[in-house]
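FIELD: query
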Amino acid sequence: MTVKRMDNIGVVVESLETAIAFFTELGLELEGRAMVEGEWAGRVTGLRDQRVEIAMMRTPDGHSRLELSRFLSPAVVADHRRAPVNALGYLRMMFTVEDLDETLARLSKRGAELVGEVVQYEDVYRLCYIRGPEGLLIGLAEELG
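FIELD: result
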């Protein structure tokens, strides 16, 4: 086997503060913030003289991370945040939560909007999609039983 683990998922945002507050409310912990810049970083991404402020968020179990990035330079070149669920490329991130209704109530105070409706899949999950900060598509699931 060649893959040992998945380290993180990266999402580019306009406001790190808004995104950090939202994902903290969801239950992730801010692991750290840093500026990523310099010749070495540009060699990795192919963007040359990049300056990117990042925040690393960790799930409570410590197994998953979300890297939030705000590009200072070069400028952002595309915007996929309002793409529907059937768009090519980045789709959504999914989180399992303890209490879906309570989580929705808390996140709605941070601007989250329900995309469709809360549905029950067999006797396994209650789940929904929301639009979070800056229109990011986020799935929430509550395990039943």
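FIELD: remark
The chain has a mean pLDDT of 91.
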